[in-house]
Specification:
Layout lengths: L3 H15 L2 E8 L18 E8 L2 E6 L3 E5 L5 E5 L9 E7 L3 E5 L6 E5 L5 H7 L13 H9 L5 H7 L8 H11 L12 H20 L40 E5 L2 E5 L7
Antiparallel strand pairs: 1-2, 1-6, 2-3, 3-4, 4-8, 5-7, 6-7, 9-10
Helix pairs in contact: 1-6, 3-6, 5-6
The structure holds a DNA duplex (16 and 16 nucleotides).
DNA sequence: CACGGATCCTGATGGC
DNA sequence: TGCCATCAGGATCCGT
């Protein structure tokens, strides 16, 4: 489900509400991708100071330590005043003095991991090799070009890998490549400076627009208050196989790259 | 070392 | 209606 825009929309929807809250109790459901890394009871009494984001990770900064939250493919967070009744896919509840933060994740590819600080091994293992934040000033077109120049894999795979730039998942990789006029199968190293410049701008544009529209709700994404996003309605290629390109009318094509669907316009996007 | 594929898990969907 | 195959927003691990 969640790529950078969905994670950021989620963060914006509850960060202010939970800031300053004291953790009363933490309940875990079925196992998630990785173990928590501490006893849930050890978190009682700690204060959530703020909520940050790094790539697709949400960071609950505590007065001592932090919790790294990942939503995987099917995870979503809700923030409620009172403890709602738990369903079979609710695998984490953080009850606080300001309300309850709940992780709902049917597929359980998500995770919650405790780390003493950002430099601790538990945090570095997850965050240590992440690329730059696409919405931050450090996301630089020249650096992107340098990074892509030596990569033999397809540009789509390199974007998804998150080593050069984070947060771009399957939907937004497809959309950004369309905006940039680049085929998802183009070799990363084959892209010239001018096209990388265009890709750089496209990544920023598509992510910013998606955040502004509340993210994409393909099946069930919603922010922490249950409100759906609307970006998917304006998608240029994602999920539109066989439908006419919104620019030129050519039927949108679908192919498989690394077990994922790539959608593209055969006319607007070049190698 | 860089790449591509298999893999974790559950639910929705479509064909028969 | 049921059964089966396929697919889904992610990211790690493993073999080549």
């Amino acid at each position: 489900m969640p790529e950078l825009p969905e994670v950021e929309v989620t963060r914006l929807s509850f960060a202010d509400r939970i800031a300053g809250a004291t953790i009363a109790q933490v309940r875990l459901g079925k196992p998630l991708r990785w173990p928590l890394g501490c006893e849930p009871a050890a978190l009682q009494g700690r204060v959530v100071q703020r909520v940050d984001r790094r790539g697709k990770y949400l960071l609950l900064e505590l007065d001592r330590g932090l919790l790294l939250l990942h939503l995987g493919m099917s995870g979503s967070l809700r923030f409620a005043e009172r403890m709602p009744q738990a369903g079979p896919h609710d695998h984490l509840d953080i009850a606080t003095s300001r309300g309850v933060l709940r992780l709902h994740d049917p597929r359980r590819f998500g995770a919650v991991v405790y780390a003493a600080d950002r430099q601790a091994p538990a945090a570095q293992k997850l965050l240590g090799r992440l690329g730059v934040e696409p919405l931050a000033p450090e996301f630089d077109a020249a650096a992107l070009y340098d990074g892509l120049r030596r990569r033999q894999a397809s540009i789509k795979q390199i974007l998804l890998a998150g080593e050069l730039v984070v947060g771009v998942g399957n939907i937004y990789a497809c959309e950004a490549l369309f905006l940039a006029g680049i085929r998802p199968t183009a070799r990363a190293a084959s892209l010239g400076r001018r096209r990388v410049l265009r890709l750089h701008a496209a990544i920023r544009q598509v992510l910013e627009q998606a955040v502004a529209r509340g993210g994409s709700t393909l099946r069930d994404f919603a922010n922490a208050h249950g409100e759906a996003g609307s970006f998917q309605q304006g998608a240029m290629v994602y999920g539109r196989a066989g439908q006419p390109c919104r620019v030129c009318g050519s039927p949108i094509r679908l192919l498989r790259q690394g077990q994922r669907s790539s959608y593209f316009c055969p006319t607007c996007q070049k190698y």
